[in-house]
Amino acid sequence: MRLGPYDSSDIEVRSSGGGGMRRAGGIGCGTIVIALIGALVFGLDPMQTIGMVESVQQQAAPGSTSSASDMSEAEVCAASEYAGEACAALASLNATWQAVFERAGIAFQRPVLDLYRDGRVTTEGCGSATSAVGPFYCPADKGIYIDTSFYDQLAQMSGTGGDFARLYVIAHEYGHHVQNITGLSAQVRKQQQRNPAAANRLQVAMELQADCYAGMWAGRNRDRIEPGDLEEGLAAASAIGDDTLQRNAGQRVNPESFTHGTSRQRMAALRLGLESKDDTACDVFFENG
Ligand SMILES: [Zn+2]
């Protein structure tokens, strides 16, 4: 994808380091189960169906302190090719989503991108994590946390070293930010507590909606898409489907334990966003209950 130049005042970026904090459990894409109530069920504004996921455990590790480095935004973005690309993607995501929120008449807030290093991060709102958890979103501090070393792993998993797989990841996490700031997340959690039997299904729906949002962003920036990008995104979506991950780990495929959806579902969700370019189309995952 050809992401254009951007103004650094349009993004919030930082880099937190290790700091020897203890590791908090439960951080990661799909660790915690959240539920979502669909607008279609409750008749809310469609934008309100944007829920949230990946609610990371909210208690901070005891004694932890924030350890953001002193690097300026420009320095963080210039630290590596991956970082520069992520900053450009963030600027584009901000612009795309701000317009969506404005049109819907909902207050918009930007997320903070934390390109942390050294395999370990202490978040402001979600305790500590190691890079083993993969990229994640922390609703409490509205931070998208990515250890850029994850991208090397992703290239192996998806079999492509292309940029679009990386952009898909950040756009997916951004989708969780969108789900958070619309305020549905609290409703979702409540709903899950009320109905534990539906919790897993709702968790999967949240993840698929985030995939769809990632596709919507790309669809709305189609003029910047290069040949091969979509295939790369679909390959990445396929590689991180729950069934494929379980199979590759030598496990029996067990739909009960899915948290993000199958490879086929994830590819379909990404494609739906791409083709519709419409965030409300991404509410479909919450229909039927
Ligand atoms: Zn996710």
Tell me what you see in this structure.
This protein is α/β, with parallel strands linked by helices and 289 residues long. The chain has one domain. It is 44% helix and 7% strand. It is built from 10 helices and 6 strands; from the N terminus they run E-H-H-H-E-E-E-E-E-H-H-H-H-H-H-H. The protein has a 4-stranded mixed β-sheet. A hairpin with a 5-residue loop joins strand 3 and strand 4. Helix 3 runs parallel beside helix 5. The termini are far apart. About 17% of the residues have low confidence. The site of zinc ion has 8 residues, from helix 5 and helix 7.
Number of helices: 10
Helix content: 40-55%
Task: Please list the strands of the largest sheet in the order they lie side by side.
Answer: 1-2-6-5
Structural class: alpha/beta
Radius of gyration: 18 Å
Bound ligands: zinc ion
What would the average pLDDT be, to the nearest integer? Answer: 78
How many E strands?
A: 6
Strand content: 5-15%
Which descriptor suits the 3D outline? globular
What pattern of helices and strands is seen along the backbone? EHHHEEEEEHHHHHHH
Low-pLDDT residue spans: 18-66
Biggest sheet, in brief? 4 strands, mixed
Q: State the domain count.
A: 1
Distance between the termini: 36 Å
Short summary:
This protein is an alpha/beta fold and 289 residues long. The protein has helices at residues 39-42, 73-78, 81-104, 150-158, 163-181, 184-194, 199-220, 229-239, 242-248, 263-276, and strands at residues 13-14, 112-116, 120-122, 128-130, 136-138, 143-147. The strands form 2 sheets. A 4-stranded mixed sheet has the order 1-2-6-5. Strands 3-4 form a two-stranded antiparallel sheet.
